[in-house]
Design a protein that fits this description.
single chain, 281 residues, mainly beta, Thrombin, subunit H, six-stranded antiparallel barrel, six-stranded antiparallel beta barrel, 3 helices, 9% helix, disordered C terminus, binds 2-acetamido-2-deoxy-beta-D-glucopyranose, signal, Trypsin_dom
């Protein structure tokens, strides 16, 4: 799984991590946003938790009252319609009155998503009813149509809960790390040439480890108040500068996203639907 022939990469799925746990000393990484801090509750009201069988597995963000954007790899081996989306959360495991739990009626993952390379790692979730927008539940904007990805050095923020019940270290609430956009060619070299064009990388900007970790997948990378990335994959050692964190480059998918959302698809994916460009890939 993951780009081959390179570093000890892995999918950012709690399940995948659980399988690989034996290859990583426990407690070294904490399966959460690395080098970050807990945010003020509900200050990132667009954050969604995607849950399967009662477990937080991936992040996402609310784009429209009925649509959440997440990563395709979160759904590659499970039926999205068995998942739930939790909005308005801060501490996931507590019963917060702000939380809204919605079902997923349809998941439209990118038709050109490649599980081995992680290219086009994006999926749109249509909720079974509209979220009630308010102080704790709100929308996050996409990049403008035709916008370029943020320049190298741009300060961005990545958020996630990054916890699973399999591990002891649970974040107290939603966590956030400050990261800086890394030039794609430099990142591609670190990843031994395994990256595709519609990807975006970040680094911590200092010698400390910052970034995302397992189960932050699908969560947004927010740059200048817009969703410019979706957490896709990183190296075995979370926050390791040798394997920079890699995101889906959202700006490459803006027209595809709006095509899907406006079409309001019926249940079932529309593979090869006319007018669905393959991102920038
Ligand atoms: C949406 O799904 C949730 C979770 O399965 C369920 O509790 C709720 O009743 C559903 N709502 C509608 C309008 O179908
Ligand atoms: C990464 O490097 C490989 C090998 O040089 C190249 O084929 C690929 O197109 C590069 N990817 C990007 C996004 O530049």
């Amino acid at each position: 799984m993951g780009p081959r022939a390179g570093g000890p990469d892995r999918l950012l799925l709690a399940v995948a991590t659980a399988l690989m746990l034996t290859s990583r000393p426990p407690g070294t990484c904490g399966l959460r946003i690395i080098g970050g801090h807990e945010v003020r509750p509900h200050s990132r009201p667009y954050m969604a938790s995607v849950r399967f069988e009662g477990q937080h597995l991936c992040g996402g963000f609310l784009l429209r009252a009925r649509w959440v954007v997440s990563a395709a790899h979160c759904f590659s081996d499970r039926d999205p319609r068995t998942g739930l989306v939790v909005l308005g959360a801060h501490a996931l495991r507590t019963s917060e009155t702000t939380q809204q739990v919605l079902g997923i009626s349809t998941a439209v993952c990118h038709p050109d998503y490649h599980p081995t390379t992680h290219a086009n790692d994006i999926c749109l979730l249509r909720l079974n009813s509209s979220a009630a927008l308010g102080p704790a539940v709100g929308l996050l904007r996409l990049p403008r149509a035709g916008a370029r990805p943020p320049k190298a050095g741009t300060l961005c923020y990545v958020d996630g809960w990054g916890s699973t019940s399999n591990f002891e270290e649970q974040p107290p609430g939603l966590m956030e790390a400050e990261v800086y956009v890394l030039a794609l060619d430099i990142c591609n070299s670190s990843w031994k040439g395994q990256l595709s064009p519609a990807m975006l990388c970040t680094h911590s900007g200092d010698s400390h480890r910052h970034g995302f970790c397992s189960a932050d997948s699908g969560g947004p990378l927010v740059c200048k108040n817009r969703a410019h990335g979706l957490v896709s994959f990183s190296g075995l050692w979370c926050g390791d500068p040798k394997t920079p964190d890699v995101y889906t480059q959202v700006s490459a998918f803006v027209s595809w996203i709006w095509d899907v959302v406006r079409r309001r698809p019926q249940p079932g994916p529309p593979p090869g639907t006319p007018g669905a460009p393959a991102g920038a890939a």
